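Lab manual, section 2.4: Encoding a predicted structure.

Procedure: take the sequence of the chain (872 residues), apply the prediction step described in section 2.3, and record the output as C-alpha cells. A sample record is shown.
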Amino acid sequence: MKQLSSAQIRQMWLDFWQSKGHSVEPSANLVPVNDPTLLWINSGVATLKKYFDGSVIPENPRITNAQKSIRTNDIENVGKTARHHTMFEMLGNFSIGDYFRDEAIEWGFELLTSPEWFDFPKDKLYMTYYPADTDSYNRWIALGVEPSHLIPIEDNFWEIGAGPSGPDTEIFFDRGEDFDPENIGIRLLAEDIENDRYIEIWNIVLSQFNADPAVPRSEYKELPNKNIDTGAGLERLAAVMQGAKTNFETDLFMPIIREVEKLSGKPYDQDGDNMSFKVIADHIRALSFAIGDGALPGNEGRGYVLRRLLRRAVMHGRRLGINEPFLYKLVPTVGQIMESYYPEVLEKRDFIEKIVKREEETFARTIDSGSVHLDQLLANLKSEGKDTLDGQSIFKLYDTYGFPVELTEEMAEDAGFKIDHDGFKAAMKEQQDRARAAVVKGGSMGMQNETLAGITEESRFDYGSDTLDAKLSVIIVDNERSEMVSEGQALLVFDQTPFYAEMGGQVADHGVVKNSKGDTVACVTDVQKAPNGQPLHTVDVLASLALGETYTLAIDKRRRLSVEKNHTATHLLHAALHNIIGEHATQAGSLNEAGFLRFDFTHFEAVTAEELRRIEEQVNEKIWEAIPVETVETDVDTAKEMGAMALFGEKYGKVVRVVTVGDYSVELCGGTHVANTAEIGVFKIVKEEGIGSGTRRILAVTGREAFLAYREEEEALKAIAATLKAPQLKEVPNKVAALNDQLRDLQKENASLKEKAAAAAAGDVFKDVKEANGLRYIASQVDVADAGALRTFADNWKQADYSDVLVLVAAIGDKVNLLVASKSDKAHAGNIVKALAPIIAGRGGGKPDMAMAGGSDTAGIPALLAAVAEEL
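Recorded output:
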C-alpha cells in the first residue's frame, strides 16, 4: 500500500476516474443552491441530484468529484471517536445511465489494489453486500475476492423516500488484530459491532430502482436509466494509507493540532485525553470553509450550527488553558493544508479571521453572562434548600449561553450541587424533535421523467430577436409525445426561439404563438429548460398546433424590457455592494421580475441607512452615465482573466457569456440585458432585510416602478406637510423635530406628575401595615395607569422602614399586575409571586428582593390580597 499525502490521494482518485472517461466536477459551495431540503451540502451526490432524477442531462454521463461536505447530526461525538467529523471530503465517481454494477465494482477494485494506483493488499479488503444482490456477490468473486471476505448485510440498501434507490456494496479495510483486543474477528462486520479494526473506506450505491413507499421493496420498478453513486471518505483513506491511529493523526489535522499545542503549551497525546485538540481541529476546518462559502454565525439554521461549533471549540480551548481569542489564528493553517484543491480559504483569509475573532470576542462576553446566570441559579437553589440543578436550567445554559454540560456540572459540583442529567437529555430531545419537525421534507431525489429526458431534438435560443419563425419539433401532452394538440395545456419545443427560459434568477418570457395566417394559436405562460437543455415552452392552446409546422413566436417585448432593466440593475447593485460594504458581499440568490428585483447577498449585519443611500446613489450614477452594456462569448478561463465574477451556484459550460458594464461590472451571465444603462432610467431601494443567518436581501425597483415609488413617498410627505401646516415640503423635518421636542417635554412633565401622584397615594397605602409570622407587610390594591407606577410605589417604599414586605396589585384594563417587594431574608419575593399569581390566572417570578407577575382574572384580586398572610 502506497504512503500518500491527503492531496496525493485526492488527486490520484480524480486522475484514475478521468482515465476511465469521467469529467471532474468541481467541489460545490457548502451552502445548497435551490435545495431547501438540505441545510448543508452533505455528500458528493448532493449537488448532482438534478442528474440522477433526470431533470438535467449532463454533457458527460461519467462524473467524478472531491466534494467538501458538512454533517452536524452528532456534533457531540466529534472528538470522542476516531472518525466523526463535521466537515469532511467525500470522493466520488458517478454514472448517469451509463456503466453500472460490473464496471463500478471492477474499477473500484482496480483503483484500490493496482500497483499503479493505491496498491492496497487484497487480503486486507472485505466487502459487504445486500443479501438479495447476488450479482454484486458474483462480481466480487469473479475479481478473485475470497468468499470469506464477502459479508451479507440486510441494511445494505440505499433509499430516502420516493425516487432512485438500490442495493449498495461497501468496502472495508482490515487494520489487524491490534485493533481487535478481544479477537472478535469478522463478527465485528457481520453483526455491525462498533470497532476500530474494519474501517469502511468506500460505498458503491447501485441506483437501480424507483422507490415507492406504497409497495414492498420487492415490487420496486427498475429505473429507466440505472445510475452509480459512490462515496469514499478522504479522511478515512488518509488514516489507513498513512498508518494513523485515528483520522486526526493524518496530515489533514496534525498541522492544526501542532498549532494548538503552541497556543496552549500542552502536548497532544494520541493515547491520552486529547478530545479538546480534536474538537478544535475539526471545528475550525468546518468554520473556515463554511464562512468562506458565505455562511455566517447566527441564532438560527446554518448560523446556529456555526455558532455552536465555534463555542464548543472555544470551551475546549479553555480546557487547554487558552482563555483569549485563538481560533482565528488557526485559519491560515487550515488554508495551507487545503490550498492545493481549495485555495479559497487563503484567498478569503482576512474575512474569515475577522468573523471568527469577532464571534470569539462576543462569546467571551456571553460566558461571563452565563456565569452570572448560573451563580444566580445556584444561589436560588441554596435559598430553597435544594441540592440538584434541574435539566431545563442546564439546557438553557447550554442553548442560550453556549455552556457545555461539563462546564455547568463542574461549576455546580464545586458549589456542592448535583446535576439532573436525565432532565437535560429530555430537554435536548424536545429541541431535536422541534428541529426535525421544522425541516423541509422531500430530501430524496425526484422521479425520473423518461419523456422529458428523451427530448433530443436541437433548439436554439436567439438573444437578438423578439419575433422568430420556427418549426415545431416536439409536442408533449399529459407527459406523452403527440403529433397534434388543439386544446388544454401542452409543452412545446421549437427548432429556435426568442423566448428566454428561466435561469440565473431571470424569469421566463411570456408571449404568443401565431400561425401562418397571423392568428394566435397559443399563449406562452412559462419557459423552462428540458433535461437536455432545450427551451421547453408551457402554452395554453387556443387552436390546433401540428408537429413539423412553422409558427411565428413573439415575446411580450414590454415585459422583457422591464425584466432586462431589473437584471442589469442587479449587476450594478452587486458591484455597488462590493465597493461600499465589502467584497464578502457576494450573491446568494436573485430574482429579476418584470415589476421588481430581489438580490440576496452574504453579510454579517444589517446594511445601515447611510450605506443604503450610498449604494442607491452609486447605482444611479452608473445609470445616468449612460454606459454601454456589452456581451462577449468566450471560455471560462479567459472570462476569469477578464475579472468576471462567477455567480453563486451557477454551472458554466465550455463557452460562457461575459456581461460588462464599462469597467464597473464584469460578470458571467446567461441572461438578457439592456443595451445601455440609461435605459434603466432610475433605481430605488425599497427594502433591506435579513432572511437568515448571514444573509441579507435587498428589494428594489427601476424605471416606471421606481417613479411610482417616489411618487407614493412624495404624496405621503405632502399629506404630512398639510397636517403640520408646513407651506413647503423642506420645512417638514424641522416641524417634526419641534413636535418631537414638545412631546418629550410633555412626557417628562407627565412622568413627574405621575410620580407626585404615586407618592401622595403611597402615603395612604403605606399606613395600612399588618403582621404575619413575625413579618410586617402591606397588601393593597392601587389605582395606577401602568406597571411602571407599581415600581415607583416600590421605590418610595424602599426609602423608609414602612414594612418588611410590600404586595401591590392593580387592575389595568382587563389585565392584572402584581408586584411583591421584600427587605427580609425570611420572605423571597420571587417565591411569593409564584404562589400568588395563579389566583389571578397569571404567572411570574423574580429576584428575592422584588418580583412581578401578570394575570387576567381581575375578580381574583380580593382573594389574592387575603392569601398574603397565609403565604407569609
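Check your result against the sample. DSSP finds 24 helices and 35 strands in the chain.
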